[in-house]
Amino acid sequence: MSGSSQSNMRSQIKIILSFLLIICIVSNAHSQTNGRVYKIAVFAPVYLDSAFTQEGTYKLGSQILPRYMLPGLDFYNGIMLAVDSLGKEQAPVEIVFYDTKSAKGTVNYAITDSTLSDASLIIASFSNRTEIKLLADFALEHEIPLISHTYPNDGGLTENPYFILINPTLKTHLEGIYRYLQRVYPTSNLTMFRRKGSVEDMIQSGFSDISRTTPGLPLKIKTVELTDSFTTSQVIAYLDSSKQNIIICGSLNEAFGSNLVKALSESRRYRSIAMGMPTWDALRGVDKNIEVIYTTPYHFIRTDKLGLDITNTYRNKFSGRPSDMVFKGFEAMYRFTKLLIKHEGKLLANINDKSFKLFNDFDIQPVKPYSSNTNAVDYLENKKLYYIRKMDGQIRSVSQQ
Fold first, then answer.
1. Would the pTM of this model clear 0.85, i.e. be above it?
2. Residue 379 domain-assigned (yes or no)
C-alpha cells in the first residue's frame, strides 16, 4: 500500500473510531453545566457493524471505506464539529447517537429505549421511508420535534406537527421551478422530456396541477416521453433555432438526466438551458458545455469565515475535503440546538427565528392536508429554495425564490 493510501486509511479509521467516543466527548463538554440539560438524539446510517466485529475490532483491513458508508459518516462528522463548538460555549446539551444500520441503533430499537423518550429534539438523516414513519410516530406521541435534514422526504406522514422537513418535497420543488420559469422564461420554447415511470407521472401531473391553479399566465410546456436509449436527434427535433430553449428534465433518474444534458451539449447551434430536478445538486459533470439550473434548499458558501473554518478543521482531522453532508450535519446541530436553548425548549413556536442562521435561509411552514378546512397540520416544511445556475462546473449565479 502506498504512503498516501495508508494515510487515507488512518483517516477513515479515525472517522469511525470517533463514534465510539461520543458519550465521553459530550460528558466532558458539559460536566460542569448547571440547570436544565437538553438531550438531543441524532440518527444517521453509518453501518458500524460493517466496519467492526462485535468485539470492536476493525475488520475492513486495507480496504477503503465503502461508498454507502460515506454520507452517514459525513453527516455525523458535521454533527460532531458542531458539538465541539457547542462544547466550547458550554451549551447545556447531551447528545445521544443512533447508527440506524447497526444492531442497537435501528429506529425499531431506539423507540423502545428509555433514553430516547425524554429527548428535547431529534435530528435525523434517514435512509428509507419506513424509518421516517416509525420515528415520526414516536416523536408525535412524546411531543418531541423531529428534524429531517435529508432525503427521503415526508414518508407519507399526516397530522404530525412535530415532524419538520428541511429538505422540501418534490411538490415544493416543482412549484418553485414553475414560478421561476414564469418569472424568467415565460415566452421561451419550453419542453419537458421524461421517461416512462410512476415518478415521472407524478412530475408531469404536478406541473399540470400547478398550471391549472397558477394565478399568473400558465406556461406552455410540451411534454415528450423518451425511452432510456433515446438519441440526440430525438431531442434536437424539439429544439427551436429562433428561440431560447428551456429543456426540463421530467425524471429523477440520474442516467436519464445526464444523457439529456449530453444530448443538448452536442447541439451547440441551439440556445438551450437544462432545467434539472433537485437531485442534480449531487450530479457531477452534467453541465459540460451547457448551462443547467436546478433547485436546492442548501447553498453552502465555503469561502466565508465559517465555511473555511469547517473545511480546515475537517481537513486537519480527516485529511479530506468535507462534503455537503458535513455542512448539513453542522448546520442542523448548531442552529436548532441554539434555538432550543434560547427559547427554553419551545423550538416549534420559534422555528423560524433567524438568530442563528449559518448558511441557509429556511422558511418553515405548516403543510395542511389536501381538501381540508380544519386546522390540522400534516407536517412542517421548509419552503425556501435556491436556484443554482452552473456551467462547466462553475456556479454562474444563485438566486432565491
1. yes
2. no
Closest CA to 163 of 2, 382, 392: 382
Phi then psi for 276, rounded to 5 degrees?
A: -100, 170
Q: Would you say residue 283 lies in a domain?
A: yes
- Distance (Å, whole) CA 39 – CA 114: 12
Q: Residue 310: its pLDDT value, please? A: 95
Do the beta carbons of residue 167 and residue 214 sit within 8 Å?
no
- Whether 373 is covered by a domain: the verdict is no
Domain count within the chain: 2
Partners of residue 40 on adjacent β-strands: 95, 121
Q: What is the DSSP letter of 270?
A: S
Let me know if residue 24 belongs to a domain: yes
pLDDT below 50 — which residues of the chain? 1-7, 9-10, 20-25, 27-33
Rounded-to-integer distance, Cα 335 and Cα 145, Å: 14
Task: Give 31's DSSP letter.
Answer: T
Domain identity same for 162 and 174: no
CB contact at 8 A, 214 and 182: yes
Residue 56, pLDDT score: 63
Side chain identity at residue 97, one-letter code: F
Write down the pLDDT at residue 271: 92
| CA nearest neighbour of 221 among 183, 193, 260 | 193
In 153-304, which residue ranges form alpha helices assigned H by DSSP?
A: 170-184, 198-213, 232-236, 254-265
Q: What is the predicted pLDDT for the residue at 319?
A: 83
Q: What is the pLDDT of residue 43?
A: 93
Q: Give pLDDT, residue 63.
A: 67
Give the CATH number of the domain where residue 161 resides: 3.40.50.2300
> Do residues 240 and 305 both lie within one domain?
no
Report yes or no: 338 and 91 within 8 Å, Cβ to Cβ.
yes
According to the model, what pLDDT value does residue 6 have? 44
Query: For residue 258, what pLDDT is reported?
Result: 92
